[in-house]
Specification:
alpha/beta; Rossmann fold; 4-stranded mixed β-sheet; about 20% strand; GMP Synthetase, Chain A, domain 3; binds xanthosine-5'-monophosphate
């Protein structure tokens, strides 16, 4: 990469050259899209519209936080409430790649609508190198289709401008610090949002559970890190598993869901090491989750794998081979 200052100058110039009319940017509030929005708005001012889609899959308080960031930055923006549309598109979808494609497609349709109303002919995206590397490029294997890469429909009807395509997360953070972008230290959050942390079908009820669990994990880990009890992880969150297991409530047998805690250290998300969260912090996370969500969660586990062999997020794979064989013989 060029020096950060040269990169900023060159990108602003490139945006001026490429975008003669109006442009729209998908702004999730993460560091990548906020940096892309800042660079392009430096180039074309109010001819850029930043659109934040509240897809019903965001973290607790996220929409209000992003609204605050966008208005403080003086970027022309719009918040679109599209939760119902996303849940409808996700109904019955359990395969993780199908989920990503459904979400990507819905995003683009919402943006197309907004772009038409605004009169934009260019779609700006904060895609970074790992997004397209992991999505497969015809040479590499598809590890996962990042929604802003794999989900793009062919008939999108807008020209694409991706100024951060060749950068890695740590480089984007450097730019963010230099540009005074408040999202510079925000932990990464996947484009398909909490849908990837909800294994199996995505329902409003399950999203509510994983949203609360994510909030608790973030809050407890941040508090422990600030108090010097542990190192701040690069990324930390909760995952909701689809199965239920037996537990006890009072003296009754009861079934409940499992939450997995995930926390990793990394530089660019391409490889990662699981964080050594102290037991006392794990204790508080576990009891806070099971006390707050007594009716739905009865088990909390901690993921102690690094990447590779795991990925950072969890996603459901296809059923194991013996299930197919049993199905074929009518035994299941
Ligand atoms: P994995 O799970 O592949 O994650 O080890 C690496 C990093 O990428 C984030 N991630 C995504 N980001 N769209 C995104 O913008 C996506 O579809 C997506 N999937 C994973 C993940 O949170 C981690 O930081």
């Amino acid at each position: 990469m060029l020096g950060a200052e040269d990169f900023i100058d060159e990108t602003v110039q490139a945006a001026k050259d490429r975008i003669k009319g109006k442009a729209i940017i998908a702004c999730s509030g993460g560091v990548d899209s906020m940096v892309a929005a800042t660079l392009v708005s430096k180039a074309i001012g109010d001819r850029l519209l930043a659109v934040y889609v509240d897809n019903g899959l965001m973290r607790k308080g996220e929409t209000e936080e992003v609204r605050g960031m966008l208005s403080d930055m003086g970027i022309n923006y719009r918040i679109v409430d599209a939760g119902d549309e996303f849940f409808a598109a996700l109904k019955g979808v359990t395969d993780p790649e199908a989920k990503r494609k459904a979400i990507g497609e819905k995003f683009i349709r919402v943006f197309e609508r907004e772009a038409k109303e605004f009169g934009a002919s260019v779609l700006v995206q904060g895609t970074i190198a790992p997004d397209w590397i992991e999505s497969g490029d015809g040479v590499r294997d598809t590890i996962k289709s990042h929604h802003n890469v794999g989900g793009l429909p062919k008939d999108m009807g807008m020209e694409l401008f991706e100024p951060l395509r060749d950068l890695y997360k740590d480089e984007v953070r450097d730019l963010a610090r230099l540009l005074g972008v408040r999202a510079s230290e925000r932990q990464p959050f996947p484009g398909p949002a909490l849908a990837v942390r909800c294994l199996g079908e995505v329902t409003p009820e399950d999203i509510a559970i994983v949203r609360e669990a994510c909030f608790i994990v973030e809050d407890e880990i941040m508090t422990a890190s600030v108090a010097g009890k542990m190192e701040m992880p690069w990324q930390y969150f909760a995952v909701l598993l689809p199965s239920r297991s037996v537990g006890v409530q009072g003296d009754r047998r009861a079934y409940g869901r499992t939450i997995a805690i995930r926390a990793v250290s990394s530089v660019d998300g391409m490889t990662a090491t699981y964080s050594r969260i102290p037991l006392e912090v794990l204790d508080s996370i576990s009891s806070r989750i099971t006390n707050t969500m007594k009716e739905s969660v009865n088990r909390v586990v901690y993921d102690i794998t690094s990447k590779p062999p795991a990925t950072i997020e969890w996603e459901r794979g296809p059923p194991p081979r013996h299930v197919f064989i049993m199905l074929a013989y009518g035994a299941a």
